[in-house]
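Key result, reporting period 2: structure in, sequence out.
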């Protein structure tokens, strides 16, 4: 076992002296490390140093923590805390950097990217390889190689010439010459004197290279200004025609800074405008109602079987355009609504031979729910969906067009970005609408790109789409987060805060208060404090602090005071660990409390509670459904608001929607009345329906229209011959035969009252209706066929599963079990063993080997003495492992023992035990 008082020599030893809480922080922040659970801490350290895991961890650092790692990559290995601080704050110092650096270094230690004490800080090897500058992969620091690295291939004679020209005494070998040159370049006083003698043109060359890139091109015969620099080693050749500015020289010219600009504090999310919370809530509620109506209209339009599914999957461009026209929205918005319905499980393909999109049975259940609950289901699906409508119309890796409802639309980062954007909005006062650029700037600080910064990277586009989609869905109103939107996130609302205050509880620290690293409202904060006892699924355990290691979004800024827990770099080390300076934080969370980071997404159970709370807040804001319409003499009906379900369904069959808005206008036409008659309604039923639900008398033109269409309806009958037409009035049939428009139907008379056609019945029906007749379809028995508008549904379908962005964050139970197993396995692999006879003591890297007789005898003796043993075991699948057990009983070819590795009592077959060894005495 590692001695806690001895500085660790490896990452494995560093992990070995951490307590369970520190390992919990590590495994929660890097869940890929326990997929699967490592056997011991050595394997955990090895896995933490793999390239894929390190890249994933670096991509999740905020900008200042990443800058700290980049500074360590260009520092000596190992480096001291003071050296790191000098690289970050420069020779002149920076109070904000000094205050924030302990937290950034603690974050790197928590995630096992940095290990060691403050006088021997080490970046894990893989991270150093990724972040160290090279010609192929320049560092964001803009620094080049060190003098030692740049002169690695240079001849000793040339090195001695540079040393002599620089005013240094010649040395007996190249190594000492490089060391002398390095010492000169790192000595501020001597370097200042050397550069004071440089020509002005030479200093201009250095100024162009100082902040990067450090490489430049020279000719075979350099100019005098370049020759002066080359002769003194201020520029060193790296390849024919290429020179580089050594790292030590650049750091002197930069006054010791590794970065041109450091960002210790996150940029604030600033309100662009402020509205009344009531205006925001009512605007969002109105848009939420529009969202429900749009989804219903979409699926109603596809009730009888929607567009065909492309061979490659998805919706064709033509069908998407038709859907956009039907919904009266742009094509990207139409793609959003179709994807939202699909994510909520309301829409799917029917799976038939002629595959088409249609509503699912879940849609019928959804329609029967209250409006607020229907909205909550859509909002939940949107928050969790990885399918991203914004990429529709783009190209995939194989240059194929991405189609709505098709494959290739999953973006694993989408749920996290949506949650983070809405959380930033929740950190503002109610009614405050932020500027999009301030939100994007904050997200770029929290997850910076390690490569060149671009304005159109995926996370930026996801954030922009989130702001747009939240407004369409009614989560936000006028750019500000609504009350039901806050409840959907589990954030405290004004109502919950009022209830908490009414119970007489003292208000707790808010997201913008000092506990979150911000300044209260009195100091320019943007919102009132909220109580941790507020109702909601996580109101007692979550806050809306917006930045890891920095003030909240509403108060952070260059002039904001540093968090109380990062103002002083001094701290005391926990018992059993060494402390050499302000960066020591092992176990990190014990001695250096962290400002609250971004809240984690809610668990499924918490999200269900939050959705119910959001629905309760939204319900009073939605308009009540009406049971009446206003009939007008121009064959229209005006619905002054949303209609109750039976009235809306029947009116949708009897009339066509002419316009939508605050009031919906329906128009009655012969075709729409015939549609109602085809659905099995009689003229008297239609008269009674309109009289019952109209607040105005039924206009005479409308009554005449219904009676006229009903009188003609069913006068002609169409059946299957291939198809036939029969009518008791042979004059009507004569009129049809004489009409030129009937030529395409290829009719012929079979009897005075019967015509036969070569068209199918459906085509014959459409042709006769186009000619102005009102035929009715009949069955083989001669009965009128009644058609229903909502006949087609898919088989039961489940909503698409989100594609996770790596392993899910483990819960507390899994973390506790994993840490227990890792520590037990580490105990088994590191516990000293007694040597067997003349054989040397085993190291734990190989399995013990003993005969069956020796194994049985040792087991029986351990039962009597109560000692623990080290065994090798091969399971039924052939996997070998080593375990530390305390035998309890040996009988029948089995040993029953307490397994320290698994922390439980187990029974092992003796024939599967490869060998046994006693543990060495302490």
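The corresponding designed sequence is given below.
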């Amino acid at each position: 076992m590692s001695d806690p008082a001895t500085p660790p020599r490896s990452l494995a030893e560093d992990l070995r002296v951490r307590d369970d809480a520190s390992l919990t922080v590590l495994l929660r922040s890097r869940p890929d490390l326990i997929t699967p659970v490592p056997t011991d801490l050595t394997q955990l350290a090895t896995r933490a140093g793999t390239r894929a895991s390190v890249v994933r961890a670096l991509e999740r650092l905020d900008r200042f923590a990443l800058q700290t790692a980049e500074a360590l990559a260009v520092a000596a290995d190992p480096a001291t805390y003071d050296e790191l601080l000098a690289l970050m704050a420069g020779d002149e110092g920076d109070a904000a950097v000094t205050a924030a650096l302990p937290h950034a270094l603690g974050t790197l230690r928590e995630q096992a990217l940095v290990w060691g004490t403050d006088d021997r800080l080490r970046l894990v090897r893989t991270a150093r390889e990724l972040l160290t500058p090279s010609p192929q992969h320049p560092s964001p620091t803009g620094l080049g190689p060190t003098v030692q690295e740049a002169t690695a291939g240079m001849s000793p004679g040339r090195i001695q010439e540079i040393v002599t020209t620089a005013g240094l005494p010649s040395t007996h070998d190249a190594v000492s010459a490089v060391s002398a040159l390095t010492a000169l370049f790192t000595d501020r006083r001597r370097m200042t004197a050397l550069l004071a003698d440089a020509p002005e043109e030479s200093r201009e060359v250095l100024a162009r290279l100082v902040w990067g890139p450090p490489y430049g091109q020279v000719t075979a015969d350099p100019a005098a200004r370049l020759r002066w620099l080359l002769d003194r080693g201020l520029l060193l050749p790296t390849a024919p025609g290429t020179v580089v500015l050594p790292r030590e020289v650049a750091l002197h010219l930069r006054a010791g800074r590794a970065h041109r600009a450091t960002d210790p504090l996150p940029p604030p999310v600033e309100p662009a405008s402020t509205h009344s919370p009531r205006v925001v809530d009512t605007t969002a509620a109105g848009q939420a109602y529009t969202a429900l109506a749009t989804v219903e209209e979409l699926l109603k339009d596809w009730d009888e079987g929607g567009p065909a599914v492309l061979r490659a999957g998805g919706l064709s461009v033509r069908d998407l355009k038709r859907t956009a026209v039907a919904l009266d929205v742009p094509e990207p918005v139409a793609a959003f609504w179709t994807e939202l319905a699909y994510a909520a499980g309301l829409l799917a393909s029917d799976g038939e031979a002629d595959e088409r999109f249609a509503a699912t049975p879940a849609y019928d259940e959804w329609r029967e729910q209250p409006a607020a609950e229907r909205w909550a289901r859509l909002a939940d699906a949107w928050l969790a969906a990885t399918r991203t409508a914004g990429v529709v119309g783009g190209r995939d890796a194989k240059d194929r067009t991405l189609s709505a409802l098709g494959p290739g639309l999953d973006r694993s980062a989408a749920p996290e970005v949506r949650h983070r954007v809405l959380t930033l909005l929740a950190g503002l006062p109610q009614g405050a609408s932020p500027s999009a650029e301030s939100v994007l700037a904050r997200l770029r600080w929290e997850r910076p790109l390690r490569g060149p910064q671009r304005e159109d990277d995926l996370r930026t586009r996801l954030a922009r789409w989130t702001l747009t989609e939240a407004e369409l869905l009614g989560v936000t109103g006028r750019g500000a987060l609504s009350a039901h939107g806050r409840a959907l996130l589990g954030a405290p609302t004004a109502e919950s805060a009022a209830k908490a205050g009414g119970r007489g509880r003292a208000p707790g620290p808010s997201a913008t208060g000092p506990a979150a690293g911000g300044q209260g409202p009195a100091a320019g904060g943007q919102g009132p404090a909220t109580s941790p006892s507020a109702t909601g699924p996580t109101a007692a355990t979550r806050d809306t602090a917006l930045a890891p290691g920095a003030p909240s979004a509403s108060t952070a800024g260059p002039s904001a005071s540093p968090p109380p827990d990062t103002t002083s770099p001094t701290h005391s080390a926990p018992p059993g660990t060494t402390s050499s300076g302000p960066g020591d934080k092992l176990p990190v969370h014990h001695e250096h409390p962290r400002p609250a980071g971004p809240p984690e997404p809610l668990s499924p159970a918490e999200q269900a509670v939050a959705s119910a709370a959001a629905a309760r807040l939204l319900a009073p804001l939605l308009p009540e459904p009406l049971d009446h319409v206003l009939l007008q003499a121009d064959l229209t009906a005006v619905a002054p608001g949303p209609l109750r379900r039976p009235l809306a369904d029947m009116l949708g069959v009897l009339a066509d929607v002419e316009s939508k808005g605050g009031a919906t206008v329906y128009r009655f036409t012969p075709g729409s009345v015939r549609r109602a008659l085809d659905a099995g309604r009689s003229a008297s039923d239609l008269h009674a329906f309109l009289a019952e639900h109209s607040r105005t008398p039924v206009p005479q033109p409308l009554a005449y229209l219904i009676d006229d269409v009903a009188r003609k309806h069913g006068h002609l009958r169409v059946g299957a011959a291939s198809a036939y037409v029969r009518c008791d009035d042979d004059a009507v049939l004569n009129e049809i035969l004489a009409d030129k428009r009937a030529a395409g139907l290829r009719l012929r008379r079979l009897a005075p009252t019967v015509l036969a056609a070569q068209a199918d019945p459906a085509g014959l029906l459409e042709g006769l209706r186009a000619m102005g007749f009102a035929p009715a379809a009949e069955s083989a028995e001669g009965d009128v066929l009644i058609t229903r508008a909502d006949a087609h549904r898919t088989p039961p379908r489940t909503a698409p599963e989100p594609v996770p962005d790596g392993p899910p964050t483990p819960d507390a139970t899994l973390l506790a079990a994993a840490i227990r197993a890792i520590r037990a396995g580490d105990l088994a692999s590191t516990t000293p063993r007694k040597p067997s006879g003349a054989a040397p003591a085993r190291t734990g890297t190989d399995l013990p080997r003993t005969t069956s007789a020796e194994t049985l005898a040792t087991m029986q003796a351990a039962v009597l003495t109560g000692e623990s043993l080290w065994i090798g075991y091969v399971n039924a699948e052939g996997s070998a492992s080593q375990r530390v057990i305390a035998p309890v009983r040996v009988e029948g070819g089995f040993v029953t023992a307490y397994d320290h590795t698994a922390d439980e009592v187990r029974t092992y077959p003796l024939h599967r035990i490869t060998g046994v060894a006693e543990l060495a005495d302490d």
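The first strand starts at residue 114 and ends at 115. Residues 277-301 form the longest helix (25 residues). This case is discussed further under Risks and Mitigation.
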